[in-house]
Amino acid sequence: MKELQEYLEENHIKAFHGRQIFRWIYDKRINDFDLMTDLSKNLIAKLKEDFTISPLTVKDRQISKDGTQKFLFELEDKALVESVLMIFDYGFSACLSSQVGCNMGCSFCASGLLKKQRDLTSGEIVSQALMIQKQLDEDGERLGNIVVMGTGEPFDNYDNVMRAMNILNDPYGLQIGSRHISISTCGIVPGIRRFAKENLQYNLAISLHAPNDELRSSLMPVNKAYPLPVLFDALKEYSTLNNRRLTFEYLLLKGINDSRKEADEIRDLLKGLNAYINLIPYNKVSEKDFETSDDENALRFYDLLKKNGVAVTLRQKKGDDIDAACGQLRANHIK
Predict the structure, then answer these.
(1) Higher pLDDT, 304 or 324
(2) How large is the C-alpha radius of gyration of the chain?
(3) pLDDT, tens only, 134-177
């Protein structure tokens, strides 16, 4: 809203029109300036001259038996990007992508099957949430949570991601509470330090997936640039400056990171941090050799962490009957 109002004032237009424009786009879901009937013709002409509203096209949509929905959106330049709608006890949550493709190269992830083509604009990130909300509108439901954990590395597209989150959080935008917005990074330390200093109220999540450098580097090339001691030094700075609880995401990979050894290492790694770890069953990717831990082993690993005094949650498996793994639907379409 602030940027729009500044634009209006720079063009000698009263700033209150910014609220009207936001209501049309984010409250009434109107994506045509000509339909904004309380704006003057001159203002509409100026907006059409300087801006475009380019809604995404739904290229594919899959619905799981558990209610999870996977969207494949086509952008204006015909690039494809994925988003996911998940249903939890606390409401509806959208997982958004931040880039077309991904260069992080995590060995278990379908997103890296197709390299990064470009960053998404803030508008393209916001549009994913808007399109999902339009789908929920049909049932009178409301999107309550946002996670930027889809294709791409959010801190590799920092400015556009933050601008998008500010719009989604805006009281005239989609009104998603700041405590209901989470940004997930695989460990881009400069981005974490920048985020820490800006003292934003959004949640910070770290894709951990391994509690020692040897294993993490074999799974996640980013760990070679920012090994765990460097990463955790930045996270401690974040915790000191923000006094916010950290979330660690941890995919359960059968026979790789789900033994007592890793449970003990997680205990030592997280000691003294205001944090919890979210265990996530792995969604199988056909091009990868990884398997998810079975239910029995996942619960055993969960219990080991609990006994170690680690704050831990075990997420219910979502969308395993559709192309739910991050990047999988897009990769299959392009293939």
Answers:
(1) 304
(2) 21
(3) 999 999 999 999 999 999 999 999 999 999 999 999 999 999 99
Question: Do 150 and 231 belong to one domain?
Answer: yes
- Tokens representing 311 are 């704050």
Which listed residue (82, 249, 262, 265) is catalytic?
82
Does residue 326 have an active-site annotation?
yes
The amino acid sitting at 273 is: L
Q: Which amino acid does the sequence have at 100? A: V
Residue 138 falls in the annotated catalytic set? no
**Percent of the chain scored above 70 by pLDDT?**
94
Residue in 95, 106, 109, 326 annotated catalytic: 326
End-to-end Cα distance, the chain: 40
The residues pairing with 82 across neighbouring beta strands, listed in sequence order, are 72
290, 263 Cβ separation under 8 angstroms = no
Question: What is the span of the domain harbouring residue 110?
Answer: 54-334
Task: Please check whether residues 48 and 77 belong to one and the same domain.
Answer: no
Does 151 share its domain with 88?
Answer: yes
CATH number (domain holding residue 26):
1.10.150.530
